[in-house]
Amino acid sequence: MDINDLTLLERASMLSGKSMWDSRDVERAGIHSFVLSDGPHGLRRQMGSGDNLGIGESKPATCFPTAGTVANSWDPGLARAMGQALGEEARSLGVNMVLGPGMNIKRNPLCGRNFEYYSEDPQVAGRMAAGLIEGIQSQKVAATPKHFAMNSQELRRQASNSIVDERTMRELYLTGFEIAVRQARPWALMTSYNMINGEYANENRHLLKDILRDEWDFDGMVVSDWGGSNSAVAAASNGSSLEMPEAGYDSMRQLVAAVKSGKLAERDLNARAEEVAKLARLTYDPAMDRDGMLSEEQKNNHHEVARRIAEGSAVLLRNEGGLLPLAAGSKVALVGDMAKTPRFQGSGSSKVNAAREESLLGLMQDGQGHGLELAAYAQGYDRQGECDQALVDTAVQTVTQSAADVVVACLGLDERSESEGLDRSHMNIPQAQIDLLKALKGTGKPIVLVLVAGSPVATDWIGDCEALLYIGLAGQASASATLELLTGEVNPSGHLAETWPMAYEDCPSSGWYPATERDAVYREGPFVGYRYYLSADVPERFPFGFGLSYAHFTYTDLHVDDAGASLTVTNDSAVDGAAVVQLYVSAPKGGVLRPVRELKGFTKVELKAGQSKHVCIGFDQYTFRHWDTASGSWQRESGEWTIQIGSDARSIELSAPFTVQGTMAPRPADPALGHYLQGRVKDVTKQELTTLFGHEVELQGPISTFGPNDPISSWKGSKSGVARFVSSFLSKREAKQEAKTGSPDLNTLFVLNMPPRAMAKMTNGMINTQMVDAIVRIPNGHFWKGIGGFIAGFFRNASANRRTRKELSNER
């Protein structure tokens, strides 16, 4: 049956969810409901109503390393293998659509959700995401890259406005999505909660129609984040297909009325309904068991896949005196609560009920230490960060009295530090752990620090350890992978996919992140991550692309032609290993504003001891382009470019000039850009910001009248005592819960950050937009009008829902 054969109401019904995790079906048309599930690094398959924050129970599934860790592998092939395993598990658990990968650019290291995102660079983010998408969809399961776009902070994430200039947006924040869409052809894509330059992402015509659909030829389904739709009519008109979770009958009525009044073109409604139907067809499998579970074989096989990915993603950051790898028979004093109770993922909607768990202590106690002997174990620190000198003293005494040859200390960020719903307040690991490390240094025994964190941390203490192995948030097989890395059975080959600064204050956006009011101005422009540190000549602790190895590699014989760059990489050591070859380009002098160099390609090369390989990295449509704001098009500057091969963004091993016959002559950067010309974004003036944007940036003033899109947290400034009480109560409740449990209260944080209009999108029609309008009268000082309007609206809405339900039932 053709979409046009459905009634108007039936077509409108397809544009919102039936439940927390299910789309609506149209049985008489053979359009089946499909199941959506969180799953960027493991399936979070909830049954029944479930929740969107990772709080409720979910079926056991493999917990793979998070995106921020997998990106350190610089290996799209590993991402593809992970995607294939995710797709297989999705089918076993009755899931048609996996909500991932997360691929927003890491604008600032404090974003609470950075562990779910790949990189500060669009080449790494786009190519790694493409690998995962290809793997998932090879199993006839839809992948859903997210969050499109500019979702850079968790604070006020449902009611923030990302203000960014067009060139920066396209070159930095959208290019990763473009690479993934063009290469992997995802069947779906998820929008972000925030506004972009004043328009919500889920109804942003420039983003969804002009760029995504018209320029990139995306023909799949666009889904809102949960509760992230503002207007059902605007979303359908501008290219978004499906509101989730349960917008209910009110949204259907709005769509039908809009078509009848001419506010929404019927062809747009039909296009959105067809996109939903297409995804249902692509993923439909009558043999799929929606109540299924993983088999033991899957658990075993995918645990090994998770381990292999963890091994390829770990980054060796320090190895003084060649302490690592540890020799067989080494006696180890194991220290740290995380060695006993591992932390291998973040908190929030991506949290997986891991099918298996393992720990360093457990494996070593069971004789699975890969040749290492457990000499002693000590907890060393309080998990929640409280300073406890007794634990430190006991650890020092245990290490001193043991026969250990080396101390392996497992330290890092706790569960409260990295979570959806809140941003980190600083970059430090808990002081209790730093105190422990300094005390262990006094024992005189060499220290290997195994660092657990999904994002960069300050490392002022690095001199207190001889070796530092960063395993990130490495999934359920992190412990066994760590042991293989420590013993040299696997040679560390990971390289950082984001810069680690000396201190947070060095970060380009540290002075204005996160935005505490509605408007978040991306005043640093394109100078994010290494683009800033190199251009402004600010030293970093570890540069983008950095990673040590037990092997040593040399780069020779660079040759550049129109096809790309070729060179020879040699492993001139006695140890097998893998090198990450990174291609950077620098534009002709005297041209448009650009960072000093930009990554434009990479490849990971496996090399046996003493082996040489010829490596080619091709040029493509992204290599030399820039967005020309004057013509509103992509252009390439003619002239002499510099092609560079690096082992990281700072360490350039080879370089060569290359003449590009472009589409335009070099155009000198506008001198009015001032400090931007040297990347000195912290010194940018208001006029220089205006020059970057091409217009004056206007910010929202203090809220005087609260609307449906102002978050409940903003009610603290309301003239209404009731509204102030609600905001204060929720804030105190969250703080009390976190102090009590050691974990953030995600439900309360979600409500605090939630604008009232989301109530009409997440209650299956029980609350409609008219009732929301009544609610916001309360913070505006009209309590009784608000309550009265809400009650009256409740009964009118319930009556309308009964009529719509009956009409829809009769049609079907």
From TrEMBL:
GO terms for biological process: carbohydrate metabolic process. GO terms for molecular function: beta-glucosidase activity. InterPro entries: Cellulose_deg_GH3, Fn3-like, GH, Glyco_hydro_3_AS, Glyco_hydro_3_C, Glyco_hydro_3_C_sf, Glyco_hydro_3_N, Glyco_hydro_3_N_sf. Residues 579-649 form the Fibronectin type III-like domain. It comes from the Bacteria. Keywords: Carbohydrate metabolism, Glycosidase, Hydrolase. It holds the Pfam family Glyco_hydro_3_C. Gene3D superfamilies: Glycoside hydrolase family 3 C-terminal domain (3.40.50.1700), Glycoside hydrolase, family 3, N-terminal domain (3.20.20.300), Immunoglobulins (2.60.40.10). SUPFAM superfamilies: (Trans)glycosidases (SSF51445), Beta-D-glucan exohydrolase, C-terminal domain (SSF52279). Catalyzes the hydrolysis of a non-reducing terminal alpha-L-arabinopyranosidic linkage in ginsenoside Rb2 (alpha-L-arabinopyranosyl-(1->6)-alpha-D-glucopyranosyl) to release alpha-D-glucopyranosyl (Rd). It is not able to hydrolyze alpha-L-arabinofuranosyl-(1->6)-alpha-D-glucopyranosyl (Rc). Belongs to the glycosyl hydrolase 3 family. Homotetramer. This is Exo-alpha-(1->6)-L-arabinopyranosidase.
